[in-house]
Design brief:
The chain contains nine helices and no strands. By secondary structure, the chain is an all-alpha fold. The protein folds into two domains: 85 residues; 66 residues, no CATH class. The protein is elongated.
Length: 183
């Protein structure tokens, strides 16, 4: 990573370095669900866009990155509020984020729903958790719930309400698929 950053800095390719940081932010969200690190990467992205030659495209990217940073900061604040025993405010703020236009460009709806579903299971309000799952499925049909919500949480909902969520608990890929079974 340091070599890439050094290379772009020496080349004074600040717009490309900015896009590298943008890609890093996407990886933090997609692979690790770490919105704080994603926000930091987008901050570096903005610094480099500010150094880049001003074009209409760069200005447009700056506006979009700024909006994404604001939305991510709101979600990080929700997570902090929750940890500080302000669950009701955090859940209300998540509901507000779901209403934001194009929220998926910054914060995945699945992460917002997963956050709220896990909260309601934690406080043993399984009906509300189930209602959120149904809302989530309406919003994103054929979603793999296990990607966004801990499987134990989903199993607790199934057990408590006697429903079947048809959760895909298999990994997205199977490392052993090429192996031939023993006879």
């Amino acid at each position: 990573m340091k070599n890439v950053i050094t290379f772009y800095n020496k080349a004074k390719a600040f717009d490309l370095l900015a896009m590298f940081y943008h890609a890093c932010a996407e990886v933090e969200i997609d692979e690790y669900q770490n919105y704080e690190k994603a926000h930091g990467a987008l901050s570096e992205c903005m610094k480099n866009l500010a150094k880049a030659e001003r074009t209409e495209a760069v200005n447009g990217r700056m506006g979009q990155v700024n909006r994404n940073m604001d939305l991510i900061a709101k979600f990080v604040d929700c997570q902090k509020m929750y940890k500080e025993s302000q669950a009701a405010r955090a859940i209300e703020a998540c509901r507000g984020l779901l209403k934001e236009e194009n929220i998926n460009l910054a914060v995945r709806k699945g992460d917002l729903y997963g956050f709220m579903i896990e909260h309601f299971v934690k406080v043993q309000n399984y009906k509300q958790a189930y209602a959120l799952i149904m809302e989530f499925r309406q919003e994103i049909p054929n979603v793999n719930l296990a990607y966004y919500v801990n499987t134990d949480v989903l199993l607790a909902i199934e057990k408590s309400l006697g429903v079947i969520l048809q959760v895909d608990t298999q990994p997205a890929y199977d490392n052993d698929a090429d192996e031939v079974p023993d006879e």
